[in-house]
Queue: 3 jobs
Job 1
Amino acid sequence: MNRSADWLHQASADLDQARVSASAGHHEWACFACHQAVEKALKALHLSLGQQVWGHGLGRSFRDLPPSAAAELGQAVTDLEDRLRILDALYIPTRYPDSLPDGAPTDHFGRLQSDDALLHARALVDAIRAAMARA
């Protein structure tokens, strides 16, 4: 059974949650939700291509795509791998105080970070959605 549409649907819901969190001032949670949206969209793409992907690294998930799918995404999104790196860097410190020198994640993330994360996540999820629609 191919559940790729379910994973893409959840990626969209995670993006919506990121917007809601950012609007409420929970920028650390918005940044994490952006990472999750792209992770789930990439999983959806893998599943639509008949393969599994494991782990949370966005860069690795992208590199594990078949070359033709990776090339198509790379053409659709400017600076794709840099965008993935930015979002990958948000996976741990947005949630765990001991990943930061002091304070809680909520003290370290603000509007600029969540706006940036949303910009990159939207571009990536939209490109993945388009690639899946063409497949």
Note: The CA atoms of residues 27 and 60 lie 25 Å apart.
Job 2
Amino acid sequence: MRLLPILPVLAIYCLTACKNEPAKEQPASPAPTSTGNNPEGVARLLFERFNQHDWEGMAALYTDTAEFKDPSFGKSIVKQTRAETVKKYKELNTLFTNFRDSVIGVYPSGDNYVTVEFISKGTAPDGTLFELPICTILTVENGFIRKDFTYYDNEQ
């Protein structure tokens, strides 16, 4: 299936979402789970919460302000607070219904890194189904995700 009609909508959404007023910084919170600094455990919990559409629980897995790299943001690294992450996914969920990620593989690397290969699926605003293969590299420090660098082909 071709994703060309879906990706401009997604890109515009993400770019405009980045230009909103910054949300207030949330206070630091304790480690989100008993995963400790186990990057694989944190990654699996991230995808579990994503698929449950538990945006607050998902955002709690990130540091107070995390770095994101994603083709929808352009080529630069974007810093987002937990509140901004919740807002982004809530808005995205209104555009793309019933979306979820199917994890293909989780590949730990060293003490602080894990790469997750997955397929994102859902329904676009025009009712068409989409399926997008994605890889994300997470940097986990002290039990929280500090960097979320995501790669996918946005030219399909």
Note: Residues 136 and 152 are 9 Å apart (CA to CA).
Job 3
Amino acid sequence: MRVKFHKNLDELKERLLVMAGLAEQAVQRSIEAYRTRDLSLCDLVFQSEPAINRFEREVDQMALDLLAMEQPMAVDLRFLYAVLRINADLERVGDQAVNIAARVQEMTAQASAELPVDIPKLANLSSAMVRKSLQSLIEANSEMAHSVLAMDDEVDAMNSDAFHAITELVQRKPDLAPQALNALIIARNLERVGDHATNIAEDVIFWVEGADVRHSSDSRSEKRDVEETS
């Protein structure tokens, strides 16, 4: 029975990782759409949302069934708890990709403008956080998960720099406000992707170490609370 249970846990992890791949791909496509103004990529992002949502429901149900039928203890219980939380964060990563794609659609209808924010660089860092947090899950590597937490500060700093640079630009060139606002919102969406990656890393740490690090930083825990109520 325990062999079957652990086989089911492996299948659950595989299902979660398939969903993770879809969410990460959606973010990559939305950023490529920003870079190239290719609206067909936006369409692909929108089309992927139902599949991501379906996977979220399926993963939740699989995890809840295992909790109800197997009554796991210790590390297995922590793993299922972590999966339920990670599942929700991955669905929200997909939501951020949809939000970015919607903003790109608006920007393509507006006059092109040079904006003082490096969206692709911010996207690369946020995506790297997601990949690293998921790798820590695959390898049950809490040390790797801890390293993701340190990356969040850099994403926050880049988002803050974008805010100040775009605010200054709008003051100088009010006619660029629509484009600048969309770029600022995209930067905020990417900062949230980084937040979700941080959440995933925290849950991996809880699973592997049994340590709850969510409240080790007041600012980090406040950010997660805002995400969960938005």
Note: The mean pLDDT is 92.
